[in-house]
Specification:
alpha+beta, binds adenosine-5'-triphosphate, plasmid, kinase, Transferase(Phosphotransferase), domain 1, four-stranded antiparallel sheet, binds magnesium ion
Length: about 180
């Protein structure tokens, strides 16, 4: 489904360009299927790692599986979302006519489901912008949405802050709002 869109998406930019999108961290490939997130500044990633583990244990799996944290707490090892393209890039391609309306509607529906599940775990992402959501396909070839970057995530708050933040990005690209 939406094969042309998938090719436009995957070949639009390189893995390295996507890994460089981070503000406070470097993402490095680490063995096949794994990446390491390393802080650019002296900053402890223990909180982020523990939040990832808590989310994973609560049964939320539309995210990279956390695999470990270094002794100095400056880097997290996690599963790589293979060919995961940031939503920002997806929306830019949509704006340029390289992604169809139907494909975008499908992705927004998937995103809605993933977010509902995320919020149902009492989690608030805290930094839900369009580079912290990845779009791609699973191993069966079905479109999939993942959430990443849990440095500002907490449990037990009001998820409306996530919703309104994301809504701003979607409206900017002329995509109909989340329901
Ligand atoms: N597990 C992953 N698999 C594939 N790509 C990833 C993965 N984690 C991060 N990336 C890519 O690297 C970019 C930067 O990662 P991330 O958002 O975690 O860092 P960051 O924004 O610097 O973090 P922070 O907000 O804590 O400073 C993402 O936008 C994404 O494109
Ligand atoms: Mg980020």
């Amino acid at each position: 489904m939406f094969q042309k869109e998938y090719i436009n998406l995957v070949f639009n930019s390189s893995k390295q360009e996507r890994f460089n999108l981070g503000g406070c961290a470097y993402i490095y490939p680490y063995l096949p299927g794994k990446v390491r997130k390393v802080t650019k500044i002296e900053f402890d990633l223990k909180f982020e790692y523990e939040t990832m583990v808590a989310l994973w244990r609560k049964g939320f799996h539309s995210m990279p599986k956390p695999l470990g944290i270094s002794k100095d707490k400056n880097s997290i090892l996690m599963e790589e979302i293979q060919d995961g393209v940031p939503l920002q890039e997806f929306l830019s391609l949509y704006q340029r006519g390289q992604i169809s309306e139907a494909c975008t509607t499908h992705i927004i529906e998937l995103l809605q489901k993933v977010l509902s599940e995320f919020w149902s775990k009492e989690a608030v992402h805290g930094d839900l912008h369009a580079n912290n959501i990845l779009i791609g396909k699973d191993i069966q070839g079905a479109w999939k949405v993942w959430i990443i970057d849990f440095g500002a995530t907490f449990f037990g708050g009001d998820y409306q802050i996530d919703r309104s933040r994301l809504q701003i990005f979607l409206e900017h690209y002329g995509v109909s709002a989340l329901s």
